[in-house]
Amino acid sequence: MTTPETHAVTGAYGYSGSYIASRLLEEGHHVITLTNSPHRHNPFGKQVAARRFHFNDPLRLVENLKGVRVLYNTYWVRFNHGDFTFDEAVRNSAVLFEAAFNAGVERIVHVSILNPSADSPYAYYRGKAAVEKALRESGVPHAILRPGVLFGKEDILVNNIAWMLRTFPVFGVFGDGSYRLQPIYVDDLATIAVREGANRGNVVINCVGPEAFTFKELVATLGSIIGKQRKIVSVPPWFGYAATRVMGLFVRDLILTREEIGALMDNLLYVEAPATGSVKLTDWVAEHRDTLGRSYASELRRRTDRRSAY
Fold first, then answer.
1. Which DSSP category does 2 fall into?
2. What are 219-246's pLDDT values in tens digits?
3. 164, 170, 9: which is closest to 74 by C-alpha?
4. Which listed residue, of 52, 151, 238, 267, carries a Cα 20 to 30 Å from 37's Cα?
C-alpha cells in the first residue's frame, strides 16, 4: 500500500489538474491545490483544500508548499490577454519552482507542450521552453510531460469542433488540413503524471495517444461519429482567422489566435513518438456522442469567471 504523502496540484479545481488530484486521492495521498481561484467550484469537498499562489509574496508561497513532497504543475495561459500574459506566466512559474526548492519539495511534475523551443516564432512555444529552462535550473528533480491536444469532458478544442459541426452546414479547415495531431485522454496524462511523481531522476516524456489524425481527418471523424457529417472546405488561414474572430463576437470568446493557427499548420501538435496513452479518441467520442458539442466551451469565461465549474 502507498504510504500517504502530501502532494500539491496547481489548478486542481480546473481541467487536467482535477484528474491528477483524483488519481492522487485514489492512491491515498493528501492533496492540496495552489490556485488563483480558491472560490471556484470544488469537486472534492474537504479532500482538497485551496491555497493561493502568492506569486508576489514568495515567502508565503514557500509556507504553502511546506510539507509537500511532489508538486504537479499545470499552471499556464493559452494566449495573451489583458489580465494574463505569457511573460507573466513564465515569471510566475520561475517563482513557483524557486519556492518549491526553498520549501523542500522533492519532485516537480510539470505539464508542458509538444515541441517547445526558445527559437520558436510563436510566443506560446518560446514561453513553454523558458518555463522548462527555469525548472531545469531550479535544482528540484523533475519530470516534464509534453502533451499536444488533450481530450475529455472539460475539453475545449474537440468539444468546440463538435459544436461547430452541429451548428454550421460547412466546416472550413486552414489550408489543406494535412497537418497532424495525436490527442491524449486527459486521464491518461494524469496517470502518467502520478506515476512520474513516484519515480526518480529527471525525464522528458512526449505524451500522445494511440491515434493520430490529420486535422481534416479529425473533423471528418468527429462529424461521422456524432452524426453531423459536413462538407469540409479549405480556406486561406487569414480568412479562417477572420471567420473565427467574427464568430468570437457572438460567443464572447477568442476562439483561435493567429499563433495557434500557425503552430497547428506547422505540425507542432504532433511528434513521431510511440503512444504513451491508451484511450482512443474515437472510442471516447463514440461514448459521449450525444453530449459532445451541445454547448460552446469558452476559454475566456473560464479565465474570468473564477467561481463556476469547468
1. P
2. 999 999 999 999 999 999 999 999 999 9
3. 9
4. 151
State CA 240 to chain mean position distance.
Answer: 24
Three-state DSSP at 173 gives strand
- Residue 130, CB-side half-sphere exposure with 13 Å CA sphere: 19
* 297 touches 150 (CB < 8 A): no
8 A C-beta contact, residue 182 and residue 211? yes
DSSP string across 11-64: TTTSSHHHHHHHHHHHTT-EEEEEES-TTS--TTGGGEEEEE--TT-HHHHHHH
Spatial neighbors of 250 by CB under 8 A, at least 6 apart, are none
91-130 residue pLDDT tens: 999 999 999 999 999 999 999 999 999 999 999 999 999 9
Decide: 15 and 152 in contact? Cβ < 8 Å: yes
Among candidate residues 112, 116, 120, 114, the one with its CA nearest the CA of residue 93: 112
- Can you tell me whether residue 207 is helix, strand or coil? strand
Residue 199, Cβ neighbours under 10 Å: how many? Answer: 11
Query: 276 is written with which cell numbers?
Result: 504513451
Sign of the Cα pseudo-torsion (254, 267, 93, 209, in order) = positive
Q: Which of 132, 128, 129, 146 is nearest to 208 (CA)?
A: 146
- pLDDT score recorded for residue 22: 98
> Rounded CA gap, 141 and 271, in Å?
25
Measured CA to CA in angstroms, residue 28 lies from 3, 83, 242, 299 at distances of: 8, 37, 49, 32
What is the pTM for the complete model shown?
Answer: 0.95
